Protein: MerR-like DNA binding protein
Amino acid sequence: MPQPLRSIGQVLAILKVEFPDVSISKIRFLESEGLLSPERAPSGYRRYSQADIDRLRYILRVQRDHYLPLKVIREHLDMMDRGEQPPNLEAPPPTPSAPVTPPEAELPPAVPFARQDRQAGPRKPIRLTRRELISTSGISEQVLVDLERQQLVSPRRQTNFYGREALTICVVARKLQLYGMDSRHLRAIKQSAEREAGLVEQAVAPFLRRQNSQATEAAREVTQLVIHAHAAMMHSLIER
Structure:
């Protein structure tokens, strides 16, 4: 007996039991990335088999539980298509013989900036080559090209190395891909940041003319306050 085929709406209802945040746009994005290929009815609508649903469930599970980038997930799926067993992600990692620096590919937990500065002190600078930036952030070469085209990421001035800000933006870009957002959406975020940076510059201009430690502290303080206000307003708007 042939397996029943389901619509994307029916698949969404099935998956939402385990993955409440999944959406139709996310399923379509995963299809556009070549991670699954549902059948098409003569009318053009997608029709998903049980194998497609199981494949989707695997993708969503390793994203949620192990934060794997799409490139690695695609490699696992290719192994499964060849009848091979993908890596056992539940196995405990080997004990390193020397201390290992925590990976930078995931964003740190949100901590108020002023408190973070006092407790942790200045963060260690990051210097990444182009290849290292792609590898560490988990994005593709094409995604980095798009980010650079939108002037969202660039090497530090007079160097060929990328810093912490570039790494953060690349990680955010990878994570936002799961929700159908790309460099064009990040460009809109940058435009908002540029307006806020202009407000900060206006506020601290009288202090900057003095060229002393007070000017640096004022710029830092105003920047932190603007960031906190922005985050609070975003949460307020989304929770309405």
Observations:
- Confidence is low (pLDDT under 50) at residues 91-104, 108-121.
- The CA atoms of residues 3 and 51 lie 9 Å apart.
